[in-house]
């Protein structure tokens, strides 16, 4: 009988004194072992992998039961070894042994979190092994690893339903890629580039026949000018860029990356960034909920740049014709409204005819121009929710300033007389 040992912080003598055993019921029968194998597998699959493996010492009957588990979560930060080199070697041995001995023909959920640096070939082997087990949900987090290319089997799997990648990963894609079974895709700090990119061929097509949720945060799209996403079932599209990520790019980042989104069922759009990307959205557009956060927090007070950024936000908002629920930061149209409103030749249709609820986050003195623009043109607006940043210790002077803001806002003219204001504090994240 073999056994994977997981460090528990107890000495070997203590472990011997407390040998695990199965408690019998009142009638003296081992009811746990008599449960159906399918039920035992389901129970073990919901235990931490360490506890599931430890059941193999209960009896010879239990020696291989854990090998049928369908949910596996491995995290190198949970090991107690103090020496970093031994910890890494031990973790690799544990992962190798588990994937070698697992007997499940299909793994439902596999999660791998590596905070240390591991050989690319080793990590690729693990991912490939899981794909061969027809994994349905795969979550890979590589925080300190050297950038490496993910195995191509990720893109050809017909069992993968949910894919989450976070960290130093590179995804090489050909000109056309079809993810046949994905319903949920989340990419964070991932680099995507064309497999055979040349100066004349910088366009890729990503096909997702059943995808419903697409999320992308701080991702690099290298050597690409056009990314087309064909996803007829897509409902939620999210693209976020953190301040640190935007600082890495030049402030005059050219609009040379275009996203063509073919998603007739798209209803929710979330965008946090500086509109360095250009979007082509489906027509007719069914988006009813949009969250737009323009990245002003990392730029200097440059009116020309603010105006350019405001125009980008304004241009994209024109494409959201049927939005009823809109979340913005206070400075969305800064640099446009405060110079010459005449430059806005056409008010976005959603503001005029469909917008019923708007939330303006992180409001301050610089946001009155944007708010005035919205109130002036929103005809069917019912609710305006305005949040102010809450510091860890809100001083009395800040409270008075917020109260003055509220009074000034309440006195502003509104196109929709029935619109009501809601004010709240929000912690800055």
TrEMBL record:
SUPFAM superfamilies: F-box domain
Official protein name in the record: FBD domain
Domain F-box: 29-89
Any Pfam family the entry gives: FBD
Bias kind Basic and acidic residues: ranges: 13-30
Domain of life: Eukaryota
PANTHER family (alphabetical): F-BOX/RNI SUPERFAMILY PROTEIN-RELATED, SUPERFAMILY PROTEIN, PUTATIVE-RELATED
Organism: Dillenia turbinata
Classification via SMART domains: FBD (SM00579)
InterPro entries: F-box-like_dom_sf, F-box_AtFBL13-like, F-box_dom, FBD, FBL13/AtMIF1-like, LRR_dom_sf
Annotated stretches, region: Disordered: 6-30
């Amino acid at each position: 009988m073999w056994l994977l040992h997981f460090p528990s912080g107890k000495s070997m003598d203590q472990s011997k004194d407390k040998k695990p055993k199965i408690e019998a019921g009142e009638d003296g029968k081992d009811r746990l072992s008599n449960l159906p194998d399918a039920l035992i597998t389901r129970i073990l699959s919901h235990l931490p992998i360490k506890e599931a493996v430890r059941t193999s010492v209960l009896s010879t009957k239990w020696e291989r039961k854990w090998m049928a588990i369908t949910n596996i979560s491995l995290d190198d930060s949970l090991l107690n070894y103090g020496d970093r080199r031994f910890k890494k070697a031990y973790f690799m041995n544990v992962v190798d042994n588990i994937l070698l001995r697992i007997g499940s023909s299909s793994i439902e959920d596999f999660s791998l979190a590596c905070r240390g640096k591991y050989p690319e070939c080793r990590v690729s082997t693990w991912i490939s092994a899981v794909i061969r087990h027809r994994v349905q949900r795969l979550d890979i987090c590589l925080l300190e690893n050297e950038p490496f290319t993910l195995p191509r089997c990720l893109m050809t799997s017909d069992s993968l339903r949910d894919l989450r990648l976070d960290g130093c990963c590179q995804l090489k894609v050909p000109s056309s890629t079809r993810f046949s079974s994905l319903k949920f895709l989340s990419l964070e700090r991932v680099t995507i580039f064309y497999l055979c990119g040349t100066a004349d061929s910088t366009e890729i097509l990503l096909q997702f026949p059943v995808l419903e949720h697409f999320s992308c945060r701080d991702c690099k799209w290298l050597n690409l000018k056009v990314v087309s996403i064909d996803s007829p079932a897509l409902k939620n599209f999210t693209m976020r860029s953190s301040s640190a990520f935007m600082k890495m790019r030049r402030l005059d980042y050219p609009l040379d990356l275009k996203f063509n989104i073919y998603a007739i069922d798209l209803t929710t759009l979330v965008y946090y960034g500086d509109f360095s990307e250009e979007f082509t959205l489906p027509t007719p557009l069914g988006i009813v909920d949009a969250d737009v956060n323009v990245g002003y927090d990392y730029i200097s007070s440059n009116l020309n740049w603010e105006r350019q950024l405001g125009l980008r936000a304004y241009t994209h908002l024109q494409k959201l014709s049927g939005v009823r629920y809109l979340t913005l930061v206070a400075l969305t149209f800064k640099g446009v409204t405060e110079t010459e409103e005449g430059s806005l030749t056409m008010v976005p249709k959603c503001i005029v005819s469909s917008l019923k609820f708007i939330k303006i986050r992180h409001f301050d003195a610089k946001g009155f121009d944007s708010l005035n623009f919205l109130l002036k043109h929103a005809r069917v607006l019912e609710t305006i929710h305005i949040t102010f940043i809450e510091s860890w210790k809100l001083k009395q002077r800040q409270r008075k300033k917020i109260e003055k803001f509220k009074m000034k806002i309440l006195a502003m003219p509104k196109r929709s007389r029935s619109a009501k204001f809601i004010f709240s504090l929000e912690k800055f994240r």
